[in-house]
Amino acid sequence: ENGRYGRRKQYPVSLVLAPTRELA
Fold this sequence. Notes:
Number of strands: 0
Order of helices and strands: H
Protein name: DBY protein
Helix content: over 70%
Structural class: mainly alpha
Strand content: under 5%
Organism: Mesoplodon grayi (Gray's beaked whale)
Distance between the termini: 35 Å
Radius of gyration: 11 Å
Number of helices: 1
């Protein structure tokens, strides 16, 4: 279960970093 959570967290993190870089 831990592996699934880690992978799921990385997916949203990439999407959040993408828009954040565009704003900066």
